[in-house]
Design goal:
Helix 4 crosses helix 5. The chain is about 30% helix and about 25% strand. It has eleven helices and 15 strands. By secondary structure, the chain is α/β, with parallel strands linked by helices. The strands form three sheets. Strands 3, 4, 5, 6, 7, 14 and 15 form a seven-stranded mixed sheet that branches. A six-stranded parallel sheet has the order 10-9-8-11-12-13, with helices on both faces. The longest helix is centred in the middle third of the chain and has 14 residues. The protein folds into two domains: about 170 residues, Alpha-Beta Complex (Quinone Oxidoreductase, Chain A, domain 1), CATH 3.90.180.10; about 140 residues, 3-Layer(aba) Sandwich (Rossmann fold), CATH 3.40.50.
Length: about 325
C-alpha cells in the first residue's frame, strides 16, 4: 500500500512517498481503507519540525482521516466491514478529562497517522460518520471540528443568544462559526480579507471585522456588544492576539485557547479583574466526537472545504496550508 512519510528534517521536502505492507488488525482493532485526509496546522508544524515531537523516522503524518472498515479484529463488537468511520485524533481518550495516556495516543505524532491507503486503529478510536457527509467532509472532523466543539459547547457551554468572537477563517474558526449558527449564537469573525469576511457573512456570521483596517478589533467587538464584551473568544490568532482577546471578552466571560497557535506574554491582572475563564483546548474525547456528530447530522451541517488534492499531490496540499490563504479545510482524497 502507498503511504506518505516524514523521513527527517527538511520540512515539506522531507515528506516522501513509500510502499508499506498492508496492515492486519489484531485483537480490539479494525482495518480501514482510507478515502480522505484533512490537514491541520498541527500536521504542518509536525512536518516542519519533526525533531520537536521526539518520534523515530519514518513517521506517517496527519491525524485526520475517514474511510471504510475492511477488517475487524478479534474481540470487536458494534463495528462491521463496510462501515464508514473516521479516526479519533486521540486513540486512547474515550471520555472524561484528558490524561497523559490520552496525549500519548495522538495520530500523526506519537503514532503513525492517516496519510496512508490503509491503517489499523483501535476499535475504541473510531466513530461512525454522519450519513450525509462524503469522505472528504468526514475527514475534516477529528481535529478542527472537535476542537471547536470542545471549546464552545463542552467547555464553553455555548447557548442560543451568546456572542462569540472568532479569530480568522481557518478550520477551527469556520467550524466554530457553523456551530454558532447551528445553536443560535451570534458570531463575530475577524480577517484581513474582505472576500473571506463576505464568505463568513454568507455562512451566517452576525458581524465581521477587518483587522487590517481596524487594528483595535477588541474595541470594535466591545462596541458591537454595547460595551459589555463578548461571551466567548475562540483564540487561535497567534502572537499578540491574546491581550486583545482578554480586552474583548466580557466580565466573567470565556476564552478558549487553541493548540500551538496562541502565543505571547500574558498579563494576569485583567484576567483576575474581569474573572475571565481561560481553557486550554486540545481536541476532544470520543464521547465529545459522538455528541458533535449527532448535532452535525441533526442540523445537516456540511464542513467548508477550501481545496481538494489528490493523494499524489500531498506535498502541494501542505504548501497550500503553509501559504495560509485557505478558508475552512484543505483535504487530500485517495
Amino acid at each position: 500500500m502507498r503511504v506518505w512519510q516524514i523521513v527527517g528534517e527538511g520540512g515539506i521536502d522531507a515528506l516522501e512517498p513509500a510502499e508499506r505492507p498492508s496492515p492486519a488488525p489484531g485483537p480490539g482493532q479494525v482495518g480501514i481503507r482510507v478515502r480522505a485526509n484533512s490537514i491541520n496546522y498541527r500536521d504542518l508544524s509536525t512536518v516542519r519540525a519533526p525533531a520537536q515531537r521526539g518520534f523515530a523516522f519514518p513517521r506517517v503524518p496527519n491525524s485526520d482521516g475517514a474511510g471504510d472498515v475492511t477488517a475487524v479484529g478479534p474481540g470487536v463488537s458494534g463495528i462491521a466491514e463496510g462501515d464508514r468511520v473516521a479516526g479519533c485524533f486521540f486513540q486512547d481518550w474515550a471520555a472524561g478529562g484528558i490524561s497523559a495516556a490520552a496525549m500519548a495516543s495522538a495520530l500523526g505524532g506519537a503514532l503513525d497517522g492517516m496519510l496512508a491507503e490503509e491503517v489499523v486503529l483501535d476499535a475504541r478510536g473510531v466513530v461512525p460518520v454522519p450519513a450525509h457527509l462524503d469522505y472528504a467532509e468526514a475527514a475534516t472532523l477529528p481535529c478542527a471540528a472537535l476542537t471547536a466543539w470542545n471549546a464552545l459547547v463542552d467547555k464553553g457551554g455555548l447557548k442560543a443568544g451568546d456572542t462569540v468572537l472568532l479569530l480568522g477563517t481557518g478550520g477551527v474558526s469556520i467550524f466554530a462559526l457553523q456551530f454558532c449558527v447551528l445553536i443560535g449564537a451570534r458570531a463575530i469573525v475577524t480577517s484581513k480579507s474582505d472576500d473571506k469576511l463576505g464568505r463568513a457573512r454568507n455562512m451566517g456570521a452576525w458581524r465581521t471585522i477587518n483587522y487590517a483596517r481596524t487594528p483595535d478589533w477588541a474595541a470594535a467587538a466591545r462596541e458591537l456588544t454595547g460595551g459589555d464584551g463578548v461571551d466567548h473568544v475562540v483564540e487561535v490568532g497567534g502572537g499578540g492576539t491574546l491581550a486583545q482577546s482578554i480586552e474583548a471578552v466580557r466580565i466573567g466571560g470565556h476564552i478558549a485557547m487553541i493548540g500551538v497557535l496562541t502565543q505571547g506574554t500574558v498579563d494576569p491582572t485583567p484576567i483576575l479583574r474581569k474573572s475571565i475563564r481561560l481553557d486550554g483546548i486540545y481536541v476532544g474525547s470520543r464521547a465529545m466526537f459522538l455528541d458533535m456528530n449527532a448535532a452535525i447530522e441533526a442540523g445537516g451541517l456540511n464542513p467548508a472545504i477550501d481545496r481538494r488534492f489528490a493523494f499524489a499531490d500531498a506535498r502541494e496540499a501542505y504548501r497550500c496550508m503553509e501559504a495560509a490563504g485557505h478558508f475552512g479545510k484543505i483535504v487530500i482524497e485517495f
